Amino acid sequence: MTTAAGLRVERWTRNSVIRSSLIGLAVLGLFAAPTVFEPAITQKLTGLWILVLMAAMWNALAGYGGLVSVGQQAFIGIGAYSTIYLTHAGVEGYTAMALAVGITAILAFLTSFVVLRLRGGEFAIAMWVVAEVFRQFVSFDSSVGGGTGISLTALGVYGPDYGRAFTYWWALTAATAALLILFFLLRSRFGAALQAIRDDESAAASLGVRVRSSKRIVFVLTSTGCGAAGAAILANTLFVQPNSIFSVQWTAMMIFMVLVGGLGTFEGPILGALILFLLQNQFGNGGVWYFIGLGASAVLFALFMPRGIWGTITERFDLRLTPIGYWVRGPAPPTARDPGLAQSDEGPPTDPPSEVAQ
Amino acid sequence: MIWVNAVMAGILLGGLYALFACGLSLMYGVMGIINLAHGDLAVLGAYLVFVISSSLGVSPFLALPVAVVLMGGLGYLMQRALLERSLRAGPLVPLLTTFGLAIVIQNGLLQLFTSDSRSLDAGALTVASLHVNDQLTIPLLGVVIFLVALGLLGGLQLFLNRTAIGRAMRATAQDPDTAELIGINAKHMYGLATAIAVGTVTIAGTFFGMRSSFAPLSGPSQLIFAFEAVVIGGIGSLWGTLVGGIVLGVAQTIGAQINPQSSILCGNLVFLAVLIIRNGRVFVSRAVSS
Amino acid sequence: MSLLEIETLEVRHGALTAVRGVSLSVDEGSVLALVGANGAGKTTLLRAVAGAHRPQSGRVRFDGADVTGLPAHRRVKLGIALVPEGRRLFPGLTVEENLQAAAGKGRSGPWTVAAVLEAFPILQPLVRRRASSLSGGEQQATAIGRALMANPRLLLLDEVSLGLAPQAVDAMYRSLDALMASGNSTVILVEQDLRRAMAVSGRIACMLEGRLILEGASNALSRDEITNAYFGLRRAPEVAS
To answer: Shortest CB distance from A121 goes to which of B90, B95, B264?
Structure first.
């Protein structure tokens, strides 16, 4: 694409095409993991894809939708418990997981009408209340074990080894699909609209961006992704309990991954998930110091490195793995993108003094 | 008569929720921060009272003023050291910062005090009650908490309306840049508002610990109750918060009457119903601004 | 001696440089009118003097002391008060509260709430009214009164007549004239009305695109000189920077 000043706006540069192809090949390679590794490692790697999925979803919601939620565990829990309900109704295990994702989508859509009119912190806590309400409803239902929890038995028919492999493929497929959907969505006009909303909601509205419906799409989509993560968590551990699956600590993990990786970048959350995965394997999942570390690093990154590790690296080296953004190339240097230009006093120097105007 | 008892208990419980809520409301009103660590600061305050009273062998009521001052100081430092910076970084960052802080406080308390629940000994007040008739008794501690809530909300209102610092705080809430230009140290005002918020929530946490038991992870549900009280109370003065607290408290005690397990669920449902009815016009009262 | 000395001040908003290397000194007891087109940097210069903007480089000295690094509220204490563009009253506070909020923050001196109400009689019946319910002129009087509560040695007035009815402007300047004629206060005012700016000020400074391009005694400069400088048509011989 060439514009007036001899600038070319590029997206699929030769490099980015090569890189994208390599990433595609790498993902294909990842699908082979269960045939190479023993089941215990497959199970751990399944956990990694779940983290990637959750991080990408929370990032899309906050980093692109401008919606900070501390209640996305609502949909993780819904994904898991819907799977339980469906298998109780006789649905095959992996099919039940897929259908559970659909149920999450419907419930997220309904929830959006309650919470999406709220802004900022109000939305954040209201979502927490929503998560609590779902947790309480599930806790009351003795058919799914009430507060003590329940095992997922439907996957037992595949035996432990095949079960682990199938669950791995299911989780990797869900994570890849979610990332692909996000990738193409963010590159579309819709992605631009979202970023406009995030930067200035009323300005975006005045430009004709449909703010509410755009937010709803992001909310439902990312919540549905969390539902897929919840179903996969269940399949990976084969046991679910309301207090742990609806726990706010999932949000703590998501916030950690996104902030450390880079809020509002495509690759950052994946990096964040990888970091959290390594930390979990190094220091063990759970534990007091582990969570103190998560919380403290979230605070430190939010305050001192708000673009996260990936955002800081790309800023410094002008580097990107995936062609989400644009490169403007040409004779002129890149134009400044500083939003601080708008100042009340400093309009264009055109107005004459009143004395002269008369 | 069971229902009268339930409503009575709910009203008194509402006083406690209003105590929790007024600091949340103040910080939101002055700085636009919803402090996600609010409930955890209450629990931290309760543990501080616990430590002071058990190590010195004094009543929690005597330990409370000391704890309020210490926690207020901590709140001031928290504002100046962390939240001030987060406010400059955009609207989402204070949320993320206070959420991270909440996780740190919860797990720090777990490390120090284990997950065992504790309670604060209010002495004779714990069991004393006003005997209205054979079916209706009113727990005295509940009445004390309610009266403290009334006093604190009234005091806060007077402070904001009638004192020089209160006026400066309202001015800062409305326009921090201009407040600076007329000689008000806006950052100091933010620090004071946070100090007051953390001080009042220490009182709330202490009464919570006297009324029932508390544990390191009790904070989030108290934050949720406080937030629900503020939203249900809606736009207006701090007194709206008391009304919101009472509505929430009554919803919970009536819910408990229906089924002991459904108490909190019932409160949450009332909150969501309010959200739906108000159709988005629920912006938490920035009580201080008006 | 000069009360305010600005030395090669440079102020940026993000990528935009609003004030470029401005040097200026203002004598105690004098009135300086700052003129220039919209976007010339007048407001930014005033706000930098008041402490609302931090300069990239340069110095601001007040009464001989370097105040460049002081936050705005500390400068109020020393006696610098700004009436901001657009008045910027606290909308939810009453007129009285707007004045009281500024009490005791600046220097001690004759200005109290009562003294302000005496100087601006139109405010007397309005003390309990919320600032948001006032007319433009009433708001402007409150804003000036609020700045006077600091008993300033240096009063900065930013477009105080903007958006007011002509009678309101006249009334306001009558009140200000008395203040400025007393010689106790040093005033810098930004005024779009050139005729009025020349009438009330002892000196005039004209800014263009962030630079100070003309400065001189108001009675020594012709209106044409100022107008030309205003539009940047011709660089006057007294170029200051």
So the answer is: B95
